[in-house]
Specification:
The protein has 291 residues and is mainly beta. The protein has 2 helices and 20 strands. The strands form 5 sheets. Strands 7, 8, 9, 14, 17 and 20 form a 6-stranded mixed β-sheet that branches. The chain has a 5-stranded antiparallel β-sheet with strand order 10-13-18-15-16, with no helix packed on it.
Length: 291
Protein backbone atom coordinates (compact mmCIF):
# COMPACT_ATOMS: atom_id res chain seq x y z
CA UNK A 1 0.00 0.00 0.00
CA UNK A 2 1.29 3.48 -0.89
CA UNK A 3 0.18 6.91 0.31
CA UNK A 4 0.97 10.07 -1.66
CA UNK A 5 1.54 13.56 -0.27
CA UNK A 6 2.85 17.00 -1.20
CA UNK A 7 2.82 19.86 1.32
CA UNK A 8 1.18 22.75 -0.55
CA UNK A 9 0.55 25.21 2.29
CA UNK A 10 3.23 25.35 4.96
CA UNK A 11 6.80 26.50 4.28
CA UNK A 12 8.63 25.39 7.44
CA UNK A 13 9.37 22.14 9.24
CA UNK A 14 7.14 21.08 12.14
CA UNK A 15 4.16 23.11 10.91
CA UNK A 16 1.92 20.12 10.19
CA UNK A 17 2.25 16.73 11.89
CA UNK A 18 -0.01 13.69 11.79
CA UNK A 19 -0.02 9.93 12.25
CA UNK A 20 -0.90 7.27 9.68
CA UNK A 21 -2.75 4.21 11.01
CA UNK A 22 -3.66 1.08 9.07
CA UNK A 23 -6.24 -1.28 10.51
CA UNK A 24 -5.97 0.48 13.86
CA UNK A 25 -2.18 0.27 14.19
CA UNK A 26 0.07 3.32 13.84
CA UNK A 27 2.45 2.67 10.94
CA UNK A 28 3.93 6.17 10.75
CA UNK A 29 4.00 8.52 13.74
CA UNK A 30 4.47 12.30 13.65
CA UNK A 31 4.76 12.53 9.89
CA UNK A 32 6.01 15.93 8.76
CA UNK A 33 5.60 15.91 4.97
CA UNK A 34 7.48 19.18 4.53
CA UNK A 35 10.52 17.92 6.44
CA UNK A 36 10.51 14.42 4.97
CA UNK A 37 10.00 15.29 1.27
CA UNK A 38 11.75 17.78 1.88
CA UNK A 39 10.15 21.13 1.10
CA UNK A 40 6.92 22.66 -0.16
CA UNK A 41 5.29 21.18 -3.28
CA UNK A 42 7.67 18.20 -3.27
CA UNK A 43 6.15 14.75 -3.73
CA UNK A 44 6.44 12.19 -0.93
CA UNK A 45 5.35 8.58 -1.37
CA UNK A 46 5.31 6.24 1.62
CA UNK A 47 5.09 2.47 1.13
CA UNK A 48 3.68 0.05 3.71
CA UNK A 49 4.17 -3.65 3.03
CA UNK A 50 2.50 -6.85 4.21
CA UNK A 51 -0.82 -5.12 4.90
CA UNK A 52 -3.56 -7.70 5.54
CA UNK A 53 -7.25 -6.93 4.90
CA UNK A 54 -9.55 -7.21 7.91
CA UNK A 55 -13.09 -8.39 7.26
CA UNK A 56 -12.62 -7.75 3.57
CA UNK A 57 -11.24 -4.24 3.68
CA UNK A 58 -8.29 -2.07 4.74
CA UNK A 59 -8.80 0.93 7.04
CA UNK A 60 -6.42 3.87 6.57
CA UNK A 61 -6.60 6.78 9.01
CA UNK A 62 -4.73 10.09 9.16
CA UNK A 63 -4.92 11.50 12.69
CA UNK A 64 -4.04 14.98 13.86
CA UNK A 65 -0.96 15.77 15.92
CA UNK A 66 -0.54 19.37 14.80
CA UNK A 67 -2.68 21.17 12.22
CA UNK A 68 -4.88 19.33 9.71
CA UNK A 69 -3.87 15.88 8.44
CA UNK A 70 -4.17 15.33 4.68
CA UNK A 71 -3.50 12.91 1.85
CA UNK A 72 -3.37 13.30 -1.94
CA UNK A 73 -3.82 9.73 -3.11
CA UNK A 74 -3.72 6.07 -2.08
CA UNK A 75 -2.81 2.93 -4.01
CA UNK A 76 -3.14 -0.70 -2.99
CA UNK A 77 -1.22 -3.40 -4.86
CA UNK A 78 -1.19 -7.08 -4.04
CA UNK A 79 -0.97 -10.58 -5.39
CA UNK A 80 -3.98 -11.57 -7.48
CA UNK A 81 -5.47 -14.79 -8.72
CA UNK A 82 -6.13 -14.53 -12.42
CA UNK A 83 -9.52 -15.75 -13.59
CA UNK A 84 -9.61 -18.58 -16.07
CA UNK A 85 -10.25 -17.42 -19.61
CA UNK A 86 -12.30 -19.64 -21.93
CA UNK A 87 -11.96 -18.91 -25.65
CA UNK A 88 -15.31 -18.11 -27.23
CA UNK A 89 -16.43 -19.05 -30.72
CA UNK A 90 -17.96 -16.35 -32.89
CA UNK A 91 -21.38 -17.28 -34.26
CA UNK A 92 -20.44 -15.88 -37.64
CA UNK A 93 -17.06 -17.57 -37.83
CA UNK A 94 -16.37 -20.81 -39.61
CA UNK A 95 -16.57 -23.96 -37.43
CA UNK A 96 -12.78 -24.27 -37.33
CA UNK A 97 -12.17 -20.68 -36.26
CA UNK A 98 -12.24 -19.48 -32.66
CA UNK A 99 -12.03 -16.00 -31.19
CA UNK A 100 -9.83 -15.54 -28.11
CA UNK A 101 -10.98 -12.71 -25.83
CA UNK A 102 -8.64 -9.71 -25.86
CA UNK A 103 -7.02 -10.06 -22.45
CA UNK A 104 -3.68 -8.32 -21.94
CA UNK A 105 -0.92 -10.27 -20.17
CA UNK A 106 0.61 -9.22 -16.90
CA UNK A 107 3.75 -7.15 -17.33
CA UNK A 108 5.70 -9.34 -14.94
CA UNK A 109 9.24 -8.20 -15.73
CA UNK A 110 10.16 -11.49 -17.35
CA UNK A 111 11.65 -11.89 -20.79
CA UNK A 112 13.70 -14.85 -22.05
CA UNK A 113 16.50 -15.39 -19.51
CA UNK A 114 16.11 -12.01 -17.81
CA UNK A 115 14.09 -10.30 -15.09
CA UNK A 116 13.67 -6.52 -14.87
CA UNK A 117 12.23 -4.65 -11.87
CA UNK A 118 11.04 -1.04 -11.89
CA UNK A 119 12.22 -0.15 -8.42
CA UNK A 120 9.60 1.99 -6.61
CA UNK A 121 7.31 2.14 -9.63
CA UNK A 122 4.56 0.39 -11.58
CA UNK A 123 4.86 -2.11 -14.39
CA UNK A 124 6.21 -0.56 -17.59
CA UNK A 125 4.69 -2.19 -20.69
CA UNK A 126 6.90 -0.26 -23.13
CA UNK A 127 10.19 -1.45 -21.64
CA UNK A 128 9.03 -4.69 -20.00
CA UNK A 129 9.93 -3.81 -16.41
CA UNK A 130 7.75 -5.43 -13.77
CA UNK A 131 6.20 -3.45 -10.94
CA UNK A 132 8.33 -3.12 -7.82
CA UNK A 133 7.87 -6.15 -5.58
CA UNK A 134 8.62 -5.15 -2.01
CA UNK A 135 8.66 -8.74 -0.79
CA UNK A 136 12.19 -8.86 -2.24
CA UNK A 137 13.35 -6.02 0.03
CA UNK A 138 15.37 -7.06 3.07
CA UNK A 139 15.09 -4.65 5.99
CA UNK A 140 13.83 -1.12 5.58
CA UNK A 141 11.97 -0.32 2.35
CA UNK A 142 13.08 3.29 2.59
CA UNK A 143 11.14 5.88 0.63
CA UNK A 144 9.89 6.49 -2.90
CA UNK A 145 10.52 9.62 -4.95
CA UNK A 146 8.82 10.60 -8.21
CA UNK A 147 10.41 12.80 -10.87
CA UNK A 148 8.80 14.43 -13.90
CA UNK A 149 12.14 15.33 -15.45
CA UNK A 150 13.01 14.18 -18.96
CA UNK A 151 15.99 11.94 -18.33
CA UNK A 152 18.67 11.76 -21.01
CA UNK A 153 19.18 8.12 -22.03
CA UNK A 154 21.52 6.45 -24.51
CA UNK A 155 20.56 6.65 -28.20
CA UNK A 156 18.04 3.94 -29.02
CA UNK A 157 17.21 3.14 -25.39
CA UNK A 158 13.54 2.45 -24.73
CA UNK A 159 13.58 2.45 -20.94
CA UNK A 160 13.42 6.17 -20.08
CA UNK A 161 10.28 5.49 -18.03
CA UNK A 162 12.24 3.50 -15.43
CA UNK A 163 13.89 6.73 -14.24
CA UNK A 164 10.59 8.39 -13.27
CA UNK A 165 10.63 6.73 -9.83
CA UNK A 166 13.42 5.86 -7.42
CA UNK A 167 13.70 4.13 -4.08
CA UNK A 168 16.10 5.62 -1.56
CA UNK A 169 16.89 5.17 2.10
CA UNK A 170 17.92 7.48 4.89
CA UNK A 171 19.38 4.51 6.73
CA UNK A 172 22.68 2.74 6.10
CA UNK A 173 21.54 0.54 3.23
CA UNK A 174 18.78 -0.52 0.89
CA UNK A 175 18.83 -4.22 -0.06
CA UNK A 176 16.96 -6.39 -2.55
CA UNK A 177 17.11 -10.21 -2.49
CA UNK A 178 15.93 -11.41 -5.90
CA UNK A 179 15.34 -15.16 -6.35
CA UNK A 180 17.14 -16.91 -9.19
CA UNK A 181 18.15 -20.54 -9.80
CA UNK A 182 21.69 -21.73 -9.25
CA UNK A 183 24.07 -20.25 -11.82
CA UNK A 184 25.97 -17.11 -12.80
CA UNK A 185 24.27 -13.92 -13.92
CA UNK A 186 24.78 -10.33 -15.03
CA UNK A 187 23.27 -7.76 -12.66
CA UNK A 188 22.37 -4.38 -14.16
CA UNK A 189 21.50 -1.32 -12.08
CA UNK A 190 19.81 1.83 -13.39
CA UNK A 191 20.31 5.28 -11.87
CA UNK A 192 19.67 8.93 -12.71
CA UNK A 193 20.48 11.70 -10.23
CA UNK A 194 17.28 13.75 -9.97
CA UNK A 195 18.02 15.87 -6.90
CA UNK A 196 21.62 17.07 -6.62
CA UNK A 197 23.27 19.44 -9.08
CA UNK A 198 26.92 19.00 -8.15
CA UNK A 199 29.50 16.22 -7.99
CA UNK A 200 30.21 14.51 -4.65
CA UNK A 201 26.80 15.48 -3.23
CA UNK A 202 25.60 11.86 -3.10
CA UNK A 203 28.02 8.94 -2.91
CA UNK A 204 27.26 5.28 -2.15
CA UNK A 205 28.54 1.74 -2.66
CA UNK A 206 26.92 -1.10 -4.59
CA UNK A 207 27.33 -4.43 -2.82
CA UNK A 208 26.31 -7.76 -4.40
CA UNK A 209 26.24 -10.94 -2.31
CA UNK A 210 28.23 -9.14 0.38
CA UNK A 211 31.02 -7.98 -1.94
CA UNK A 212 31.56 -4.36 -2.96
CA UNK A 213 31.33 -4.27 -6.76
CA UNK A 214 31.27 -0.48 -7.07
CA UNK A 215 32.77 1.74 -4.38
CA UNK A 216 32.01 5.43 -3.92
CA UNK A 217 29.58 5.72 -6.81
CA UNK A 218 28.74 9.34 -7.62
CA UNK A 219 25.94 9.11 -10.18
CA UNK A 220 26.05 12.83 -11.00
CA UNK A 221 29.79 12.73 -11.73
CA UNK A 222 29.79 9.39 -13.53
CA UNK A 223 26.79 10.05 -15.75
CA UNK A 224 27.92 13.61 -16.44
CA UNK A 225 25.20 15.60 -14.72
CA UNK A 226 21.68 15.70 -13.32
CA UNK A 227 18.86 13.72 -15.00
CA UNK A 228 21.26 11.65 -17.11
CA UNK A 229 20.86 7.88 -17.15
CA UNK A 230 23.63 5.67 -15.80
CA UNK A 231 23.49 1.93 -16.52
CA UNK A 232 26.01 -0.41 -14.89
CA UNK A 233 26.60 -4.10 -15.56
CA UNK A 234 28.21 -6.50 -13.10
CA UNK A 235 29.06 -9.86 -14.65
CA UNK A 236 29.59 -13.41 -13.37
CA UNK A 237 27.43 -12.91 -10.27
CA UNK A 238 26.52 -16.26 -8.67
CA UNK A 239 23.21 -17.16 -7.09
CA UNK A 240 23.73 -17.75 -3.36
CA UNK A 241 21.18 -19.93 -1.59
CA UNK A 242 18.68 -19.30 -4.34
CA UNK A 243 18.93 -15.53 -4.68
CA UNK A 244 21.16 -12.57 -5.49
CA UNK A 245 21.51 -9.87 -2.84
CA UNK A 246 21.93 -6.30 -4.15
CA UNK A 247 22.64 -3.54 -1.62
CA UNK A 248 23.15 0.20 -1.94
CA UNK A 249 25.08 1.45 1.11
CA UNK A 250 25.50 5.02 2.26
CA UNK A 251 28.74 6.99 2.04
CA UNK A 252 27.37 10.53 1.60
CA UNK A 253 23.63 11.26 1.56
CA UNK A 254 20.91 8.73 0.70
CA UNK A 255 21.72 5.81 -1.63
CA UNK A 256 19.13 5.14 -4.34
CA UNK A 257 18.26 3.03 -7.37
CA UNK A 258 15.74 3.35 -10.20
CA UNK A 259 15.75 -0.13 -11.66
CA UNK A 260 17.40 -3.55 -11.48
CA UNK A 261 17.81 -6.28 -14.09
CA UNK A 262 19.21 -9.80 -13.78
CA UNK A 263 20.20 -11.64 -16.95
CA UNK A 264 21.26 -15.24 -17.46
CA UNK A 265 19.82 -18.72 -18.00
CA UNK A 266 16.75 -19.15 -15.78
CA UNK A 267 16.57 -15.54 -14.57
CA UNK A 268 12.96 -15.42 -15.82
CA UNK A 269 11.73 -18.42 -13.82
CA UNK A 270 11.43 -17.36 -10.16
CA UNK A 271 11.18 -13.60 -9.63
CA UNK A 272 8.06 -11.73 -10.73
CA UNK A 273 6.79 -8.16 -10.68
CA UNK A 274 4.18 -7.25 -8.09
CA UNK A 275 0.57 -7.99 -9.02
CA UNK A 276 1.33 -10.85 -11.41
CA UNK A 277 1.07 -14.59 -10.71
CA UNK A 278 4.39 -16.03 -9.58
CA UNK A 279 3.73 -19.20 -11.58
CA UNK A 280 3.03 -17.50 -14.92
CA UNK A 281 5.77 -18.61 -17.37
CA UNK A 282 7.18 -15.89 -19.54
CA UNK A 283 6.52 -17.78 -22.76
CA UNK A 284 3.08 -19.15 -21.82
CA UNK A 285 0.83 -18.82 -24.91
CA UNK A 286 -2.36 -18.67 -22.81
CA UNK A 287 -3.75 -15.22 -22.05
CA UNK A 288 -3.25 -13.92 -18.53
CA UNK A 289 -5.09 -11.31 -16.52
CA UNK A 290 -4.25 -7.62 -16.79
CA UNK A 291 -2.29 -6.51 -13.73
Amino acid sequence: MSTYFAESYFTTNNSRLFNISINGAVVRADLDVYATAPGKNVALILLFTEVVPVAGHITIAFTKVKQNPFVNAISVVGEVTCPSVTPSVSASASPSASAVPAVSPCVNGRSPDSFSLNVAGPALPASGFGADNTKYIKGSAGFVSVSNAAVQVAPGATNADVYLTERYTTERELTYHIPVPEGNYTVTTYHAESYFNTNASRVFNIVINGEVVKADLDVHATAGGKDIALVQDFINIPSVNGSISISFTKVTENPFVNGVKISGPGADTLAVGSGCPATAPVRDPKPLCLC
